């Protein structure tokens, strides 16, 4: 089966910067997701560079992103990474370990939902 591109999709991220190049605002659009100019306070982008066999990344957040929001953002991102890694590799056991760590992270950051 030949891998032939039959469609193209675009995701845009617009970052408003101050005079010191610090992010003040972020908007993103994804035509296939019907998202246009949605606000965001932070994003993390990781791209695999096959030539250098290395990860390239961009991590940005606005000054309005609170520490509590950052804790939640990281927790949810780590959980999503476990799901994505399991889907991509089938490595169920190590992903369960990562989810256990995510629980530990949430406990240490005191971001677990209150028990009734």
| Shape call | globular
Please give the radius of gyration in angstroms.
Answer: 18 Å
Give the count of structural domains.
2
Report the biggest beta sheet as strand number plus sense, adding barrel if it closes: 3 strands, antiparallel
**Number of helices, counting only DSSP H or I runs of 4 residues or more:** 2
Decide which structural class fits the backbone.
alpha+beta
**Secondary-structure element sequence?**
EEEEEHH
Strand content: 25-35%
Structure, explained:
This protein has 116 residues and is α+β, with helices and mostly antiparallel strands. The chain contains two helices and five strands; from the N terminus they run E-E-E-E-E-H-H. The strands form two sheets. A three-stranded antiparallel β-sheet has the order 1-2-3, with no helix packed on it. A hairpin with a 5-residue loop joins strand 1 and strand 2. Helix 1 packs antiparallel against helix 2 (92-108). The N and C termini lie far apart (54 Å).
Provide key terms for this protein.
116 residues, alpha+beta, 2 domains, globular
Topology:
Elements: E1 11-17, E2 23-30, E3 35-40, E4 42-49, E5 54-61, H1 67-89, H2 92-108
Helix pairs in contact: 1-2
Short précis:
This protein has 116 residues and is α+β, with helices and mostly antiparallel strands. The protein has helices at 67-89, 92-108, and strands at 11-17, 23-30, 35-40, 42-49, 54-61.
């Amino acid at each position: 089966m030949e891998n032939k591109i039959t469609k193209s999709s675009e995701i845009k991220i617009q970052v408003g910067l101050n005079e010191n190049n610090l992010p003040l605002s972020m908007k993103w659009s994804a035509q296939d997701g019907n998202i246009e100019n949605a606000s965001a306070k932070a994003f993390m982008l990781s791209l695999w560079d096959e030539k250098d066999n290395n990860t390239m990344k961009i991590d940005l957040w606005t000054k309005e992103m609170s520490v509590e929001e950052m804790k939640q953002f990281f927790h949810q991102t780590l959980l999503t990474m476990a799901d994505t890694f399991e889907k991509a590799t089938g490595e169920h056991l190590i992903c369960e370990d990562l989810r256990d760590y995510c629980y530990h992270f949430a406990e240490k950051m005191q971001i677990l939902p209150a028990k009734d």
